[in-house]
Description:
The chain is mainly alpha-helical. It has a single domain, classed as TorD-like (Orthogonal Bundle). The protein is 73% helix and 0% strand. The chain has 9 helices and no strands. The chain has helices at residues 5-23, 28-39, 46-59, 61-76, 88-91, 100-111, 127-145, 151-183, 187-210. Helix 7 (127-145) packs antiparallel against helix 8 (151-183). The model has no long low-confidence stretch (mean pLDDT 87). This is Chaperone protein TorD. InterPro entries: DMSO/NO3_reduct_chaperone, TorD-like_sf, TorD/DmsD_chaperones. Keywords: Chaperone. It comes from Desulfosporosinus metallidurans. It holds the Pfam family Nitrate_red_del.
Amino acid sequence: MDLSIQNLKAQTYFYSFFSTFFREKPSNEWLKSALELVASWDETCSPLHQQFSENIQKSGLDNYLNSLTQEYERLFFAPGHVLVNLYESVYCGSGLLMQETTVNVRQHYLRAGLVVKSLYSIPDDHIATELEFMQFLSQKMLELLQQDGAEEALKEIMVWQSEFISEHLQQWIPTLAETIRAKSTEPFFQLISIGLESIVEDNVTNLLTNY
């Protein structure tokens, strides 16, 4: 097994980043750090990055941050009708909340010894919660990788992560990302959607390489 500590650290960080982004309206301080991170992704999306940089220059940082906050609310928390739903069950099945998908997600959490804090108030298949679960598993793998005699435990966590990705994330993250890109022309949100897909794809590659 040739897992990389560096890759696991990056994986853990990015799952935390995206989980925080989708959990609640980001603060200006968080958005400033996010802008720096997104700006470092220019190798894969240069046209979008060019427009992204131009928008900041035209608006000024403070005005641009305010516009991102307004767009965030419009996309994910608009009253009456949410443009981009953040629950897996809406994309996989009948289009309703709290379906079989939600129950299956909870079973994955329980197997890993986790219980969602907002149990019974927010469905377990919210994107932020699923990504937080992936962060937890990645962090656990990182810890086990640095322990002697923990190879079997590490393999078990890798199986759990692989199963959750195949049964859940790969089933709806691409559609969620496409929906974000369809509903917002703002480059920042389009880049976020691309980055979200990329972290899942990279995770799959790492698992296939090392499992």
